[in-house]
From TrEMBL:
Signal sequence, start to end: none
Source organism (scientific name): Gellertiella hungarica
SUPFAM superfamilies: Glycoside hydrolase/deacetylase
GO terms, biological process: carbohydrate metabolic process
Protein's name in the database: Polysaccharide deacetylase
Length: 248
């Protein structure tokens, strides 16, 4: 048995896709972006060195021209709306949510509308009509109302479902949030990516979720290994979310 079963399984899955002439679409979403930092710079340079497009989920309340100036002229970056403030309004007994049922819908929607117009003004060429709910959670009743503020697509975590608005989701998270709070084991991640490639339907994509501010060495090594393995593979195609957005 291979010492790296996950890596072997991923390579097999991609080889099959190459033989079938239908490369698997991959996309990369990085969350909690507010301002330029060394961590963001390292992360974007790593992706760019493999020509991998990145969607940055930007928290609008505190962001501004510093990030806009930093991103100007960078290739392969798109921007999505990451809530308004990334504040938690759920009680301590519940999972964290900014966009949950804890506040009036009209208030939540007006904050999202402010955020979307702020980011659209900062990034007229990079902005996607996509909402990334903080902690990947949103009140079900809000989903159908997002169209009223111009949001056409939601990006959460897990398989896409028919839940009132188009979804382009992430499926593999590099972070071990509940254990070490560092990067998850590389071969486990390879195996999960392989699993998504093996099971996803026609027209679907494999979404990788990252959080550049908390990446440790394990995550950086994993990303380098994944990008090296996949970027030039004929069975894989890293794509911009702008080319994957479900038609609405
Ligand atoms: Zn977040």
């Amino acid at each position: 048995m291979s010492a790296e079963p996950g890596r072997t399984r991923l390579l097999d899955a991609l080889d099959r896709r190459a033989e079938q002439g239908r490369p698997a679409a991959f996309w990369l979403r990085d969350d909690d972006v507010v301002e330029p930092t060394d961590a963001l710079h390292r992360f974007l340079n790593l992706a760019a060195s493999h020509a991998i497009p990145v969607t940055l989920a930007v928290i609008p309340e505190e962001t501004g021209i510093a990030l806009e100036a930093y991103l100007a002229g960078r290739e392969g970056v798109t921007v999505a709306l990451h809530g308004w403030s990334h504040r938690n309004y759920a009680p301590a007994t519940e999972k964290k949510q900014e966009l949950g049922p804890h506040r009036p819908e009209a208030l939540v929607l007006s904050e999202l509308a402010s955020g979307y117009s702020k980011l659209s003004a900062l990034y007229p060429d990079l902005m996607l009509p996509m909402l990334v709910p903080p902690w990947n959670r949103i009140a079900p009743s809000l989903r159908t109302r997002l169209g009223s503020i111009g949001i056409e697509c939601l990006s959460v975590f897990g398989p896409e479902k028919d839940r009132g608005i188009a979804e382009l989701n992430t499926h593999v998270d590099v972070m071990d949030w509940h254990g070490t709070r560092g990067g998850r084991p590389q071969d486990v991640l390879f195996g999960e990516i392989a699993g998504r490639v093996e099971t996803m339907g026609e027209g679907a994509a494999m979404g990788l979720l990252t959080h550049h501010l908390v990446h440790d060495e394990a995550v950086e090594h994993f990303l380098e290994a994944l990008f090296s393995l996949t970027a030039g593979h004929p069975g894989c195609r890293w794509m911009s979310a702008s080319d994957l957005l479900p038609s609405v």
